[in-house]
Inverse folding.
C-alpha cells in the first residue's frame, strides 16, 4: 500500500478503490433504507421527477451562485430570487414526499426518508421567512472596534 497516489493532478493518501467502495456502500445503504427493495432511482421515477431535476438545474443552481454573493454582501435584491427559489423547492419537496410516502415506490423507512430529504424542506422554509422580513438584512447594531 502506497501512502500517496497521483489522481488528476492531486495527491491522496486513500486508494481510489477504497473511495469508490465506500461510495457504493453509501448508495446501497440509501437505496435500502429510503427506497427498499425496489432500488428506485431517477430512471424509474418518470417524467415528473426528471422535470424536477431540470428545474433544479435551471432555477436552483443559478440561485445558489447569486445567493452566495448576496448573502455575503447583504444585498437586498436577493429577496425576489429567494422567494422564487423557496416556493419552487417547497413545491418539489411536496411532490417528492407524497411519492416517497404514498406512491408506487413508497419508502419502507419513512423516518430515514424524512431525515434524508428534510434539509431540502427546512432550508427553503428558513429562507422564505428571511425573505419575508423587511428589511431582509437588518442593519448591524454592533459597533466597530478600533
Amino acid at each position: 500500500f502506497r501512502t500517496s497516489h497521483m489522481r488528476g493532478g492531486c495527491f491522496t493518501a486513500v486508494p481510489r478503490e477504497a473511495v469508490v467502495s465506500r461510495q457504493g456502500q453509501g448508495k446501497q445503504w440509501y437505496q435500502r433504507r429510503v427506497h427498499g427493495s425496489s432500488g428506485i432511482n431517477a430512471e424509474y421515477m418518470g417524467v415528473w421527477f426528471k422535470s424536477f431535476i431540470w428545474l433544479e438545474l435551471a432555477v436552483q443552481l443559478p440561485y445558489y451562485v447569486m445567493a452566495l454573493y448576496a448573502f455575503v454582501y447583504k444585498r437586498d435584491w436577493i429577496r425576489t430570487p429567494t422567494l422564487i427559489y423557496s416556493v419552487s423547492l417547497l413545491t418539489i419537496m411536496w411532490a417528492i414526499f407524497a411519492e416517497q410516502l404514498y406512491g408506487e415506490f413508497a419508502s419502507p423507512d419513512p423516518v430515514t426518508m424524512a431525515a434524508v430529504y428534510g434539509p431540502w424542506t427546512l432550508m427553503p422554509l428558513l429562507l422564505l421567512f428571511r425573505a419575508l422580513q423587511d428589511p431582509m438584512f437588518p442593519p448591524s447594531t454592533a459597533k466597530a472596534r478600533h
Confidence is low (pLDDT under 50) at residues 1-12. The first strand starts at residue 5 and ends at 7.
